Structure to design on (363 residues):
C-alpha cells in the first residue's frame, strides 16, 4: 500500500490547476477483455493511501446493506455518415438531441462544419434513403436540421438506428475505426432507457457476475437515468471555474430509489455512486442537505471544489482528461491535492485513461 504525503488543505478554483501531461499511449483504444478485470486504483481519503487492485475486487469495499447507484441510460447510435448535396463531399453528423418529434428537428454536430451551411441538404444511407436539411446554425460545429422522412416517428427512429453507428468520441475515432465490438462494449450491461449520445463509462466495468455477487452479499443495486450528452467532451474555456456552464442533460430518479438511498444512510450504511453522471444526478436531486427526492427534468450542475457532497460516501470513476469537468468533479470528491497526486501515480504506473480506460474507487 502506497501512502501519499498530506499537504496543507486548500481548494483550487482555477482551471490551470487541473492541467497535467497525459501521454497519448495511456489513452485506452480498446476495453479490457473482461469487463470486471480492468485495473482499479483505490483512494482512501481518510488515510491518504492508495491501493492497486482489479475492478472485481470492488465487492471487498462494500458491506451488506450498502447501496450502489448506477445510470441505466442506453446509448443511441447517434453517429451518421453521409454526403453533401451536389458536391458529394463526405460529412459526419453527430445527433445531439431531438427538438421536435413531429417536425423531425434535431440539434446535431457536423464535420467538416465550414462546408455545411443553412439550406444545404445532407444525404444518408444506401440510395440516399434519408435526407436532412440544414435550417439553422447553433455553435461553431452545431446545426439544427430537419429530417425529411415519410412515416411514423417510430419508423423514423428505427431507420436512424439502422443507419447509425456507435458514437465513439472524436478522440477515440482519431486513433482507430469503429469496430463491431464497440456496439456492445460502448454500453453498460444494465442499459435500459435509450437517449444518451455519450456513454456512462464508469459503468463499463460491471459484469453480470459482479452484480450477482452484490446480490449474494446483500449489496443493494439501485438505478437512475441521466442521458449523457456531448457536453461531456466540451472544453472548459474559462480560468475561473465558477463561470463555466455545463450543457443540460435530461435525468430521472424515482421516489422508490430515493427512499432506498435515504434508508441506507439512515441505517448507517454507505452509498456508492457509479460515475460522475450519477454523482451530478444525485446532487441535482438534493432538496435539503442530506436528503434526495424524486426528480425528473434537466440538470446542468457543475461540481468543482470546494463542494460538500450530500449523498454519496464512495465513488467509482475512470481516469479522465486534463482540465475536464469529470476530473474536476472527482477532485472535489477526493480532495484536489490527493487526486492530483494519485493521477501522477497512475501515469507512472501506466494506468489506462479515458473511455475504455481503467477504474478508480474513492472511499
Amino acid at each position: 500500500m502506497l501512502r501519499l504525503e498530506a499537504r496543507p488543505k486548500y481548494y483550487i478554483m482555477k482551471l490551470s490547476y487541473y492541467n497535467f501531461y497525459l501521454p497519448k499511449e495511456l489513452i485506452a483504444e480498446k476495453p479490457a477483455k473482461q469487463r470486471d478485470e480492468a485495473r482499479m486504483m483505490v483512494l482512501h481519503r481518510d488515510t491518504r493511501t492508495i491501493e492497486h487492485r482489479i475492478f472485481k475486487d470492488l465487492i471487498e469495499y462494500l458491506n451488506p446493506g450498502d447501496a450502489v447507484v448506477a445510470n441505466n441510460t442506453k446509448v443511441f447510435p447517434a453517429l451518421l455518415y453521409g454526403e453533401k448535396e451536389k458536391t458529394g463531399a463526405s460529412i459526419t453528423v453527430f445527433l445531439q438531441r431531438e427538438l421536435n418529434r413531429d417536425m423531425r428537428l434535431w440539434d446535431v454536430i457536423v464535420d467538416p462544419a465550414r462546408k455545411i451551411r443553412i439550406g444545404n441538404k445532407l444525404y444518408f444511407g444506401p440510395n440516399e434513403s434519408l435526407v436532412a436539411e440544414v435550417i439553422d446554425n447553433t455553435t461553431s460545429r452545431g446545426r439544427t436540421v430537419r429530417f425529411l422522412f415519410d412515416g411514423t416517428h417510430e419508423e423514423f427512429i428505427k431507420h436512424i438506428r439502422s443507419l447509425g453507428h456507435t458514437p465513439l468520441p472524436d478522440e477515440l475515432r482519431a486513433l482507430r475505426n469503429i469496430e463491431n465490438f464497440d456496439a456492445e462494449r460502448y454500453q453498460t450491461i444494465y442499459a435500459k432507457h435509450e437517449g444518451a449520445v455519450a456513454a456512462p463509462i464508469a459503468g463499463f466495468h460491471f459484469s453480470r457476475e459482479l452484480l450477482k455477487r452484490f446480490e449474494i452479499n446483500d449489496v443493494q443495486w439501485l438505478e437512475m437515468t441521466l442521458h449523457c450528452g456531448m457536453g461531456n467532451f466540451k472544453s472548459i474555456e474559462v480560468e475561473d471555474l465558477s463561470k463555466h456552464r455545463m450543457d443540460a442533460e435530461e435525468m430521472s430518479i424515482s421516489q422508490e430509489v430515493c427512499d432506498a438511498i435515504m434508508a441506507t444512510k439512515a441505517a448507517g450504511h454507505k452509498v456508492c455512486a457509479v460515475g460522475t453522471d450519477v454523482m451530478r444526478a444525485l446532487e441535482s436531486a438534493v432538496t435539503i442537505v442530506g436528503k434526495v427526492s424524486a426528480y425528473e427534468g434537466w440538470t446542468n450542475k457543475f461540481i468543482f471544489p470546494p463542494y460538500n457532497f450530500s449523498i454519496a460516501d464512495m465513488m467509482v470513476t475512470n481516469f479522465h482528461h486534463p482540465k475536464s469537468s469529470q476530473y474536476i468533479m472527482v477532485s472535489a470528491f477526493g480532495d484536489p491535492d490527493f487526486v492530483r497526486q494519485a493521477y501522477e501515480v497512475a501515469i507512472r504506473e501506466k494506468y489506462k485513461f479515458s473511455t475504455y480506460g481503467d477504474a478508480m474507487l474513492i472511499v
